[in-house]
Amino acid sequence: MSNSEWINDLINDHDAPTMSDKQRKILEAAIDTFSEKGFAASSTSEIAKKAGVAEGTIFRHFKTKKELLLAIVTPTVAKFVAPFFIKSFAKEVFESEYEHYEDFIRVIAKNRLEFVRKQFPVLKIFIQEIAFHDELREPFQKLFTEHVYQKFKKIIEHFQEKGEIVSLPPETIMRMTASSIIGYILPRFLLFSDKEWNDEKEIDQIVSFIMYGLTGKR
Amino acid sequence: MSNSEWINDLINDHDAPTMSDKQRKILEAAIDTFSEKGFAASSTSEIAKKAGVAEGTIFRHFKTKKELLLAIVTPTVAKFVAPFFIKSFAKEVFESEYEHYEDFIRVIAKNRLEFVRKQFPVLKIFIQEIAFHDELREPFQKLFTEHVYQKFKKIIEHFQEKGEIVSLPPETIMRMTASSIIGYILPRFLLFSDKEWNDEKEIDQIVSFIMYGLTGKR
Amino acid sequence: MSNSEWINDLINDHDAPTMSDKQRKILEAAIDTFSEKGFAASSTSEIAKKAGVAEGTIFRHFKTKKELLLAIVTPTVAKFVAPFFIKSFAKEVFESEYEHYEDFIRVIAKNRLEFVRKQFPVLKIFIQEIAFHDELREPFQKLFTEHVYQKFKKIIEHFQEKGEIVSLPPETIMRMTASSIIGYILPRFLLFSDKEWNDEKEIDQIVSFIMYGLTGKR
Amino acid sequence: MSNSEWINDLINDHDAPTMSDKQRKILEAAIDTFSEKGFAASSTSEIAKKAGVAEGTIFRHFKTKKELLLAIVTPTVAKFVAPFFIKSFAKEVFESEYEHYEDFIRVIAKNRLEFVRKQFPVLKIFIQEIAFHDELREPFQKLFTEHVYQKFKKIIEHFQEKGEIVSLPPETIMRMTASSIIGYILPRFLLFSDKEWNDEKEIDQIVSFIMYGLTGKR
DNA sequence: GATGAATGAGCATTCATTCAT
DNA sequence: CATGAATGAATGCTCATTCAT
């Protein structure tokens, strides 16, 4: 199985097979509403109206409003970090065609951008609410530190040993890499989603920036 | 007037001279509460209690809850972008000791970090709420596009002409610069504020990253 | 047929032969719940869960929640007063071995205590709810005034004619007799059901009290 | 100070001086409603309507519906047992004109009957709800066992030593005394409050019954 | 007959805001 | 200027009951 395959696999929506029609409608309406007004400013009555169900129906499927939030956010966040979750992730990277750090982050970036494009409303909710709900922050922090961070770290160390990238602490490398990519994605979808974007080209530029900075000496 | 002077000038709290004791207490309590729970999830009665005033007193000073939000956020945001607001800003940069883009962003970064340290709760509120309130977003967008962006653009073009930085669109350069810095500041205060940070050194690393990337070929 | 026989007959559970398994489980669960939390504070969904049936099943067997209450309370109350209901009741008493009022109330007391022991939860529900439901109070009042009261009255008059008890109005005699007995039974089950009780002895004391008061001059 | 004086003193409504007009109206409406339909079946909106206030006003004065219940019931129950609460209670009894147990319970009975007449709705609520609320039962049990029971016990022992009443356990004597009186009061107000009652005469009969039973040998 | 999803009225409680004092 | 009682709409959630399967 080639890299592109297993990555794509994780992205596809193979979940929610047990979800009823109403349940899906409620989730959609809730995503809409939370995303637009924020969790605390959204009322369950509005969500019910938008979903075309009675208010009581929401609470038959989700015990509380907060549980509805978690039902929206958890699977998407899980899928977002899923590629890093795979056991063989780091190994695959080393043995793969990704000869350079550059290639690696380019693939990750393009692939995760695709995911963000599809799931932006949910990710927006996540970003907004993670600051206020322990039930959201704690599992995510665990997920991140125990899996994403560990795997990413090994990969960085691998390329540092190859002498390809500087010897800063891996978390610093990670932060720089991540914030450069996120610094594109966030405004792209949050502030200027109506603008036309050539994502392919932008990502190439960002990757280039990550590797060589702004001086252009490459 | 040297650069350091006018910058410091803008930071100092020369405002709020007309504010009564109660008013200040209300603002402090509101910052606390909004920052901790978010605007929508904070109740005016809780703020009143925390401020040690009667519920009605808040509405004597701020017509609505939203006006209270604006009263908190507006002056701080204004001060945050103030350096770019000054007419002579760009000119000063060109003629100043900042021979290199590197020096320029280093000063900006350190200086704005200082500001963020002091004002983080307010800026957190701003970041959280800008997505939901037109009254917040519109003036800020105007401020940004008409002043900050324009000035920053000129500066970038200046250094591009000097051949110091690559010929990407100025907004791309800006985004890369900004997100590298913000990508340090945000986690630093939002997620790991209890950790000990050597900000001076971190910023030097970030500036170096912005200029030369991760390859270390410099 | 001796007295003890017909009395025992009425107590035995010869009813509910047409009741399905589910129906019985629902009734049991409802008795549990109503008794513990009161009728109004009990929810049908909780009862359904406790009974191990679907929410809808309750309403297949009992049109409304109130009908469920009546189905619980009515047969038990009927059985409680049943001894007084029997046509030959008074006559049997006169011709029976009960030479004295004392013997009569002793048998009734012991016998009804036995019944209360078995059915306390249901009787508790009855006592709690009779004040609030006309559907409960009216048939009971009718039952009581037309049967229990009439029969009891004749018995009291019988013993008054024999000069065995004072010539107060029969209802006063009845009230004194009843409240002395009930004044034992109620706290015994309601407040101190965990304490060990020697019911036999207690009833003897109560009967003695009813007959001779507290002076002990007998 | 004669006995009748200190007893009357305790009965009079010297409380609630700090209660606002609205607060009193809410309490009255709540007593009405709770008494008529029971606590759980009463809605705060109905109480608000009956009291002529907004629903929110109820919750400004009483944090929860249950607190409203306690605010109604606690002071009345306290006043009901107040006579037994007084330090000198037992001593006064011994040295007083109450030469006989009979006189003592006659005064108590008449006096408490008067109280019940005025406060019946509240006492009805208490009786109904004590079974379901620990917050109600626990303080009352404490009050009763630590004060009422102790004092009453001493008085009973006093008259037992005088050879005036039988040597049953004091709590049995108490139960018999109390249930005879309560057995009059409860039906009198609960079931037949519309009937005309000669309370004076009835109580004399009850006291006589308590002392001498139904045989009339006195 | 039994289920349990669906309903929408109703619930206790909270809210931002007003206004008489 | 400050208060805090009063408001009534709105909130998240529960309820008894219905009905298609």
UniProtKB/TrEMBL annotation, chains A, B, C, D:
Residues 43-62 bind DNA. Signal peptide: none annotated. InterPro entries: DNA-bd_HTH_TetR-type_CS, Homeodomain-like_sf, HTH-type_Tx_Regulator, HTH_TetR, Tet_transcr_reg_TetR-rel_C_sf. Keywords: DNA-binding. SUPFAM superfamilies: Homeodomain-like, Tetracyclin repressor-like, C-terminal domain. Residues 20-80 form the HTH tetR-type domain. Pfam families: TetR_N. This is TetR/AcrR family transcriptional regulator.
